[in-house]
Amino acid sequence: MKIAVLAGDGIGPEIIAQAERILLALKSDGLKFELEPGLLGGCAVDATGEPFPEVTRQLVAQADAVLLGAVGGPRYDSLPREKRPEQGLLAIRKALNLFANLRPAILYPELASASSLKPEIVSGLDILIVRELTGDIYFGQPRGIEQRDGQRVGFNTMIYSEMEIRRIAHVAFQAARKRKGRLCSVDKMNVLECTQLWRDVVSETAAAYPDVSLSHMLVDNAAMQLVRDPKQFDVIVTGNMFGDILSDEASMLTGSIGMLPSASLDDQNKGLYEPIHGSAPDIAGKNIANPLATILSVAMMLRYTFAQEEAALRIEGAVGKVLAQGYRTHDIFEPGTQKVGTAEMGEAVLASL
Ligand code: NAD
Predict the structure, then answer these.
(1) Mind listing the pLDDT tens digit for each residue in 223-260?
(2) Catalytic: 188?
(3) In sequence order, which residues have a C-beta less than 8 Å from that of residue 191 and are 6 or more positions away?
(4) Would you state the CATH architecture of domain 1-99+266-353?
(5) pLDDT surpasses 90 at 271
(6) What integer pLDDT is reported at residue 130 of this predicted model?
(7) Residue to probe by mutation, ligand 1, list 18, 279, 329, 333, most atoms within 8 Å of CB
(8) Could you identify which of 6, 190, 257, 265 might form a hypothetical disulfide with 271, taking C-beta atoms 3.0 to 4.6 angstroms apart as the criterion?
(9) Can you tell me the distance from the alpha carbon of 143 to that of 138, in angstroms, rounded to the nearest whole number?
(10) Which one is catalytic: 138, 178, 180, 321?
């Protein structure tokens, strides 16, 4: 197993350093892999003039998985658009054909008061949103703004092929199989033909997964149910635009941006793993960033790319244990708990691992 490690900018190097400690501990326990560092984002612009340099392109093409910190920072915001760190992020997703985005929204019971919802609604929340990432209205043609009958009109095309729907459905069914075995497919079939096809193809795909129970929900109802009773869901699968909105809604149910990992996968389960937060320039270099989202991204990598479920559970269990022991970085700190820095939190996870 070869893991490309792209620490990136801002707090990226600090949080990645803690994730690497966890990986190295697993290596000394017998897990076989190599870590290869590379440059992406602002640090790559500084070194090479490009946010996604050729040498990084080759590195990630040869790797089995990519672990990413975060990219970006105010220093780069005045660069031409194609030179900005965020372009490196879009380019790497495209280069690796990462069509499946997996975002868990997990709320450890100890952090239930971080949510803006009542603790009893969200405590112990553990849902997974599977979002299609390379199709839908975000990429469909034709698109544009033009003059028609003396006024401007704007238009986009919502489009999905059977193949695109089927492959993301397989990812979602397989993920559900590794969890509680319940999948809810979200669409808007009552008004959009494109999503009628979505519902039909997801239903056809279900035949290969008799052990997973499939339900369907309209997107407006799903948005409402996520805040009314989020624990009714196990895995949700949906298209690019609905997934964009619902995955942000779901992650904010937990109220703690420093806790949430994500995975973006291709059709061979090669993946890019990263925390959902950005490079947090306001706290960079201060040893106060929360490294848990990045450490939990390593657990996702072990589960989805390397099929090492036991090692993934070990990491998740270790994170649960440090929270139960009362360790908190500043973003999740509450009176009565013990405030620790980035490195100390990494140390605590290592100890409980
Ligand atoms: P952000 O997620 O970096 O920060 C938002 C707030 O959350 C800040 O107050 C920050 O201090 C806090 N925060 C974020 N991660 C934290 C952590 N691990 N521990 C504790 N607190 C944390 O979002 P932003 O400020 O809008 O963006 C900053 C930069 O990051 C921008 O350049 C943006 O383009 C970039 N960005 C990158 C990614 C990525 O690399 N995937 C994602 C989002 C934003």
Answers:
(1) 999 999 999 999 999 999 999 999 989 988 887 889 99
(2) yes
(3) none
(4) 3-Layer(aba) Sandwich (3.40)
(5) yes
(6) 97
(7) 279
(8) 265
(9) 9
(10) 138
289 in contact with ligand 1, CB cutoff 6 A:
yes
pLDDT, position 22: 98
Per-residue burial over 184-223, b if 16 or more Cβ lie within 10 Å, else e, is bbbbbbeeeebbebbbebbeebbeebeebebeebbbeebb
Give residue 251's pLDDT: 85
280 is in an annotated binding site: yes
Would you state the CATH architecture of domain 103-260? 3-Layer(aba) Sandwich (3.40)
Residue 178: predicted pLDDT: 87
Is 29 noted as a catalytic residue in this protein? no
- What does the block give as tokens for 266? 């291709």
281 CA closest ligand 1 atom index: 28
Q: Are 137 and 241 in contact (CB under 8 A)?
A: yes
Q: How far is the CA of 80 from the centre of ligand 1 (A)?
A: 21
pLDDT computed for residue 113 by the predictor: 84
- Average pLDDT over all residues of the chain: 95
Same fold flag, 1-99+266-353 and 103-260 = yes
Burial of 18-43, coded b for 16+ CB within 10 Å and e otherwise, reads bbbbbbebbeeeeeebeeeebbbbbb
- One-letter amino acid at 292 equals L
